[in-house]
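ugh finaly. both done.
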Amino acid sequence: MKVLVIGYGSIGQRHVQILREMDLDVSVVSRRDLKEVNFYNNLQIALQENDFDYIVIANETVEHLITLKMILDNQFTGKILVEKPLFVNTELVEFDYSKTYVAYNLRFHPLIQKLKKMLKNEQVISVNSYVGQYLPSWRPNSDYTKGYSAFSEQGGGVLRDLSHELDYLTILFGEWHILIAKTDKISNLNIQSEDYVHISYKTKQQVHIAVELNYLDRITQRYVIVQTNEKTIKIDFINNSINCNGEIEQLDKLDRDYTYRKQHDAVLSGSSKCCSFSEGLNIVNMIEAVEKSSRCKEWVYND
């Protein structure tokens, strides 16, 4: 199977490594001058000279739409995986996106799957979700002030970077109905984008949810706490553990590439577990609603 990965930043490199470990024939498109086998610095040429089966779009978020259009304009009929978030803003699309998926790989985490089973017969009352990581520690070999995360116009900012939370909360508890939010740059990080987001919302299933995302946490934490009428459940993604009413279950340490491999397997097998194009677009819509709420200081409804 022939695969094309577009973009060779940290996430693009990870996709290339994993796909090659899966014994796939991988080519790369990048603006960088790479000494890579099957390397192209021009997407059009790569598409003209090859018959790819699967394409991964892993360039900057602001380039996702034009990249996707170019691929489809070249009559590509295979499967496409677009890194999250799908677009910077909600876009009207007039093409067949039935084989296009969005890379919200955290939904493949065993803890998410286990939590989903634990909640099957429970009435969920409230949810608190938190993720924080100190931005300068994300990519140790690069200058955080020059990466896309530092610039809102490039699709950076913690709201989009850590939008995995918005995806997994949606698949577990349903779509948002009404929200109020605050996005801000509150630290001394040398970035133009927001480094802090707080969202309070209610789902269409009447579940109350609070979310915090930040670039500030030097401990690095990612967890979700779920309250039901019978249980308090805490999922700790960093320690790979589940605490239910004080009883802790410690799962085996997870390979950092596990969820990415599961995601690629799911896309290639046609599994319904993948984030669909429309689901990815719904997350973009929620991101825009969060920004509107913060800007206008008002509740926003999802009609």
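ok and the 2nd:
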Amino acid sequence: MMIAGVRILPGTVSWCFLILLFACRNEPPSPPAESELIGSVMARRSETVDSLLTAGAAPDSRDDEGTPALIIAVNAGRIDIVKRLVEAGADVNARRAAYFQSTALMEAGVRNDPELVTYLLDQGADLTMQDTLGDTPLNWATYYGHLDLVKLYLERGADWSVASKQGSAVDIAMHRGHRDLVRYFIEQGAGDPIGAEAVALFTAIRNDDAGKVEDLIEAGLSPDQTDELGNPALVMAAEMGREEILAYLLRQGADKDALNGVGETAMARAARFGHGDIVNRLLSIKADPDLAGAPFRITPLLAAAQAGHTLIIQELLASGAFPNAQEGINGYTPLMLATAAGKVDAVKALLAGGASPYLKSFEGAGLYDMLRYSNNPEIGTIIQESLLEQ
């Protein structure tokens, strides 16, 4: 028989009818795959993102590592894509599956974008949530030194006293050396009040006014005077590279091994900020090159390694500093920190000075895990050659 001019064999009409029937049914298309939306967000293609969401893509799609599309958009700095995802129903408080289980608001603290942060807050982003270290969005913004965001979070009710494994936001500001943030927290009432003469002393150190420092000490202030947050004058002088003031304070009997409010010595602060002459002066009077206190437990060598100050690393190792000390938060060694920071010469100096490439962090991360952060293949080659030599 013939149907529409096509010869059909006997007995096949019913099957052809069924095929045509099912082919003509109005079935809704499958929603786009998560990978399509993630790829478009990563490529910053806002029109494609909009089309995919309209077609039914899940706004809470995640990449292969469990990172929500919203966090990817935040890190791309694309507030237009962030808004479209939220409008489509994305959870503003969704966490990463890994990487400290952070939220979009936390990672927004990496960027100094008050407009983006304000939008997330207005959409219900939670200022009180904490990552796996206990850090809040305020702590994240403080870590990266963004004063505008810190002010915004405090205006929205954030609490600077919430303590994580790294301490409070105030502790983090001190550890990171964000002096403008430290001063702001003090102005907002952080710490303990000190007298006018003590305030004048720390102002003189900041202004590198050695004469004023001498006048205040001779008038009766202790060379071990601390500021509102417990930071000794000697440690501040070392951090800021005030060598003349530091030498004077030492002559007046200042404790060469005094710790600041986050457990760091004058030598550690000098090493962190590259003041090699001050490190050498402190080594010459037998200051302890391995001393460190809670919570960070940053020795001078750890501080120098993180910042990549190779000459200071070599001086410390030559003076007997322990090459495999582990900092107090994650258990990273100097070699791990230098590797993660991509500091090639520092890595070479540490390996030459006896640093072990085999040690693990408290969570089991090794040196090769640190390579993911450095994005420097040369360091990988150096480490591989070192392992083959041992």
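summary for the 2nd one i guess: The chain has 23 helices and two strands.
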